């Protein structure tokens, strides 16, 4: 392949999908006209069987080649010279998709607190409308971690035989009380901000800083902080971990908003692939594609046992594990292990 051909394949396009008919939500509420921001890399092959759809986590965006740079890009596992790679910003997120700060067509003002509650099933349904718009009759691989893995599993259920592989990383089939509890404590932090309740784009910003600090404790493992945040001198105050968490809180609050954080954390809580389908085990048994569930041995948020549960209960399940001190965030860090896991999975599943 020439360098010119390589550039053509690796070039990313960023687009907006506008859905005029809106979306009927699982709650029975109708979300009117909405949009999804999405990116594509690579080209569809003649058989249209090289589609890889990447799903981001809670505060991610559609630029998967940036936050999963160890997996996606030229000469990486998902190389755009071989695959047509799609990544869409979740409905409710603030990176180009319809979200609480978008204009409510009924009022002509931002939704703010009137934005409807979303579930992972709703998020999957919005992506399926985008799939149909793009004319993609089948998907080779869905891959997502954390909230993205939850949405991918929901979508795998509805796609049925239109999907060949689902890779569910550091995720689960149903949100645990532990996850819901962490998310609720973060929303309580947002609520404690005196500006929360105001119809303002910055409402809850300081609360979001605290929420992110709480979240960071669940995304890592105690050993992570011993390794990276231990103080080298005797102290009574101003510890490294304190400044680190404050920094992380401000960093997120400067690029995200409390409204989207609220909506998407609620969506994570809602996740239950078995709701209305006879229970989790029965729903998983009706997912026909090949499923790779990847757990992290040190993940205290989405435990490795939850990933094993998925692999045991789908008809064509495999389980692999990342070994890391980085806890839940290992799926965004341990690229070498992920590449090895994906390589072995696809070698084992060549038709």
From TrEMBL:
Recorded metabolic or biological pathway in which this protein acts: Amino-acid biosynthesis; L-methionine biosynthesis via de novo pathway; O-acetyl-L-homoserine from L-homoserine: step 1/1
Pfam family, one: Abhydrolase_1
Active site: 146, 299, 328
Keywords recorded for this protein, A-Z: Acyltransferase, Amino-acid biosynthesis, Cytoplasm, Methionine biosynthesis, Transferase
Gene3D superfamilies given in the database record: alpha/beta hydrolase
Family matches, as HAMAP family: MetX_acyltransf
Protein name: Homoserine O-acetyltransferase
InterPro entries: AB_hydrolase_1, AB_hydrolase_fold, HAT_MetX-like
Keyword Acyltransferase assigned: yes
NCBIfam families given in the database record: homoserO_Ac_trn (TIGR01392)
Enzyme class: transferase
Family named by the database record: Belongs to the AB hydrolase superfamily. MetX family.
Ranges of residues in domain AB hydrolase-1: 51-332
The keyword Cytoplasm is annotated on this UniProt entry: yes
């Amino acid at each position: 392949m020439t360098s010119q051909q390589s550039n053509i394949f690796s070039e990313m396009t960023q687009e907006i999908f506008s859905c005029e008919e809106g979306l009927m939500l699982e709650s029975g509420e109708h979300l009117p006209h909405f949009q999804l921001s999405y990116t594509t890399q690579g080209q569809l092959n003649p058989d249209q069987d090289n589609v890889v759809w990447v799903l981001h986590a809670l505060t991610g965006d559609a630029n998967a080649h940036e936050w999963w740079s160890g997996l996606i890009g030229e000469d990486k596992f998902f190389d755009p010279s071989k695959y047509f790679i799609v990544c869409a910003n979740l409905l409710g997120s603030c990176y180009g998709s319809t979200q609480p700060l978008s204009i409510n067509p009924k009022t002509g003002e931002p939704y703010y607190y009137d934005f409807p509650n979303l579930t992972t099933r709703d998020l999957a349904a919005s992506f399926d409308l985008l799939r149909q718009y793009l004319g993609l009759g089948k998907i080779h691989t869905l891959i997502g971690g954390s909230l993205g893995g939850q949405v991918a599993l929901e979508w795998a259920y509805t796609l049925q035989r239109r999907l060949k592989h689902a890779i569910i990383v550091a995720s689960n089939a149903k949100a645990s009380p532990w996850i819901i509890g962490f998310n609720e404590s973060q929303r309580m932090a947002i609520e404690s901000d005196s500006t929360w309740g105001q119809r303002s784009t910055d409402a809850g910003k300081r609360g979001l800083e605290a929420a992110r600090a709480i979240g960071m404790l669940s995304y890592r493992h105690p050993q992570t902080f011993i390794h990276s945040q231990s103080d080298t001198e005797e102290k009574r105050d101003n510890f490294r971990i304190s400044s680190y968490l404050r920094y992380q809180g401000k960093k997120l609050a400067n690029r995200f908003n409390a409204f989207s954080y609220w909506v998407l954390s609620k969506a994570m809580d809602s996740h239950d692939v078995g709701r209305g389908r006879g229970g989790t085990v029965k729903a998983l048994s009706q997912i026909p594609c090949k499923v790779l569930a990847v757990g992290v041995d040190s993940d205290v948020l989405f435990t490795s046992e939850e990933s094993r549960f998925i692999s045991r209960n789908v008809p064509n399940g495999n389980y692999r594990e990342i070994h890391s001190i980085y806890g839940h965030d290992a799926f965004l860090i341990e690229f070498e292990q992920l590449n090895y896991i994906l390589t072995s999975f696809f070698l084992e599943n060549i038709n």
